[in-house]
Structure formats: C-alpha cells, structure tokens
Amino acid sequence: MDVAFLTIAELGKLYRQRELSPVEVTKALLDRIARHDAKLRSFLLVTEGVALAEAAEAERAQMAGALRGPMHGIPYALKDIIETAGIRTTGHSKLRQDYVPAADADIVTRLKAAGGVLMGKLATWEFALGGPSFDLPWPPARNPWNTDHLPGGSSSGAGASVAAGFVPGAVGTDTGGSVRGPAAFCGLAGIKPSYGRISRRGVFPNTFSMDHCGPLTRSAEDIALFLQSIAGYDPQDPGSENLPVPDYAAELAGGIKGMRLGLVEGWHTDPGAHPDLAAAIGEAVGVLRDLGAEIVPVRLSSLRDYTDCKTTISSVELYSIHEHDLKTRPQDFGRILRNRVLPGALITGQDYMAALRWRSELAREQATALQQVDAFITAGALTVADRANPEAPDRFAQTPSITMPFSVAGTPAIAIPCGFSQAERLPLSLQIAAAPFDEARVLRIAHAYQQVTTWHRRHPTLA
Q1: Which of 65, 79, 168, 170 has a 20 to 30 A CA-CA distance from 230?
Q2: Is the pTM of this model over 0.90?
Q3: DSSP labels for 379-426?
Q4: Which of 178, 219, 314, 429 is catalytic?
Q5: Would residue 79 show up in a list of annotated catalytic residues for this protein?
C-alpha cells in the first residue's frame, strides 16, 4: 500500500484494523524522503533512529490494544525553531547551527505522550522571519508542485514536506501567516489557532505577543485530530490560556446550514491579488451557499492598515530579541533577516504604544463584526507561490498581507485549498476565521466545504 498521501484519519483507521503498522508507514516515508527530498530541501535533519524507535514503541502499544489517541503511530515533523531535547535545533541560522537543546518544547512533550513519531526537523525562514534566504547554511525549501517555486514561509519545510507526502502532518508557527501561507501555496490545510491555545514554551520567539503554533495537514479533519493532541494550558507559558479544549473531531459534523458567513469586501480583490483569485473565491462562496450558509458582505479596515500595525509591533519585539547578536555578530545573520530586524531600533516607545492601541481598535472591529456573523471568509493568500529567485525584491515591502489581520486579532484562522491558477497551475486558497477560541467552528466550516470538493485530494507528482 502506498502510504504517502494517506491522511491522519485514514492511517488511524488502518492501524485500528491492523491493516498497517506504524513501523511499516515510518519506513516507507523515510524511504520516500531519502529518494526525493534532495530536490525539495524540506528537512534540515531527518531523525531516522528516533522515528524507528518511536514507531516500534507505538506498534507494540497498538498490538497490545493500548492506543493513545488520534496521533498514535502518526509520523510528523517539526519546524526547526521548536526545541527537541538532544536533537539539533537551528532556526535555519548560522547563529544556532550547532545548538542542541537540553529539553523538549511543550508541544513536543505532548506529541510524545500522544504516541507521535518524530521524523525530523524542517526548513524555515531564518528564525521564522528572514526569508526566503539564499545566504544561510542551508538552502531554502522548494515547492513540490513546481520546484522552480517556493513553498511560502516561514514554515516552508512544513508546507513542502506535507505536500510532498513525506509526513501526513507537521507543526509550524504563525506570527503573521507562517502556517497559513505555506498551506495556501502548497495546497494544504493549515491553522493558526487562537492566541494562547497552544503553548509556545521551547519555541524560539518571533513576536511574542502574536506568536502561535499550529499544524499543517491535508484536510480540516486531520487538523482537528492533530490539534486535539497539542492544544492545552501550559502554566509555564505566560501567554497560555487556561480554557477547556473541545473535542474538535466530534464537532466537525453538523454542516453549516443556517450559518451567517461574512465575506470580507475588498481584501481578496486587492490590486496585488492574482487574476484568478477572485473567481476561485467566488466559486468557494457558491459552494458554501449551496451548503446552506448565508453569505453577507463585511467591511473591515484595509489590509495595509492591519499589515502596518502588525509590522510596527513586530519590528520592536524582533529587535529586542536579536539586539545582542546584531551588535556582536551582525555578519552571521542572513541579509534578509538583518534588514527586517534593524528598523526596530528606530521605532520609539511612543510609536510602539500607538501601534498597540491601534491593534486593540482593529481587534475590536473584528469582534463587533462577529456579533453579526458566525465567521469571516476571505482568501488564504493573495498570490500563488513565488519563484525561487535570489534577486527578487523583498515581498514584505511590496504587498500587504491577507493573513495578518487575524494575527493582529489573535483569532483562529484556517487556510484550505480552493483551486489552482490557470497559468502556473499552482494552488489557490480559502481562509476562514472566527471568534477567539472558536477553532471548532472554523474547522466545521472547512470540513463541510471539503466534504463536497476535492481540491485537498490533489497531490503533486515527484519526478
């Protein structure tokens, strides 16, 4: 059986039926990585020994009838800013190319307890911000749909590895769109949960007031299963919220008949948007309407407002994180990260406080709108995946972000595939967002859409 594109849900069912074993699946995926990842560079480190040992342990428990939950025996991989005890964690940077943590991040502890199988550490943009960079110790990851293109960032290896069929799920981080962007560009599902839903302890910070961890998988159903294993309160993370974690998989069913979905006006038709995007979103909206949802227009502040607010806050927090190394080892930074961090030294405390107040206003406008609708819908990305061009200008300085609004508000948002561009034949994406800690609603809408569409069932062919 070719296991490359089986979902987490499908693998779990086959495990329970004793038709597949974790060791079989792990060996098959390790072989696939060995055959194909030289072209994609999605992994910085393949942890073959760890994977085989954890798969064998999961298989022994499976044979004894002691399954630990939906991630039992499921291979996964981690963005390489997530610390793993005894396993190199580099941040894809020369600054930490030999760093080996002494302890696991909270999210890794939870995945071990859930019976997951760690396949390795994944490419990222440098410290989850500086990329795509071609002047780092490792090259940037490539997009499995077309290796002349990039998989998005900063969870670049997470997007590439899941799309390529190397793992059924991966953990990324999302501060302004770093899970949802690779999901959009690689034809996957990727969620940024609510701020505080998943611990960031043991994850190298980007913008602590907006950092989130989240999974990338092939479907909303798989997101629900993965999220169940990693969500929860961590008293050692000051941003963690002590709230009950719903049974996400149990809440997928029920459909969306009678829901009011707010289509955000102007965002996916931004002048910088891909020419095929509006039609793809229009078709997706039609599907949701046919499923019984009422679609109503919603007006929110411009993408440029949200992007400027988020970037101002991030610049200050980023500079505070990297200040010492910038002063003592500036030559060890990649050019893009250095250029993105340095402006934070020029932003005054008054400007930072003004941006924080602005953030509160923008979050309040979303909260007010969500009193009239059950969720927002918009695009998951304004464009298709960029070409891999070392001379390309910095996109951050050119185009506003359609993912940053929900980072500013700290609300859950998922990106799922909704089509392909005509010229490039690259994925297009739909984004769904809801009120804080309402991941279950976001997943329910996404799952309903995927029950009647097949975009998430399409996979790239690796030569």
Answers
A1: 65
A2: yes
A3: ES-SS-PPB--TT---GGGTS--SSHHHHHHT--EEEEEEEE-TTT--
A4: 178
A5: yes
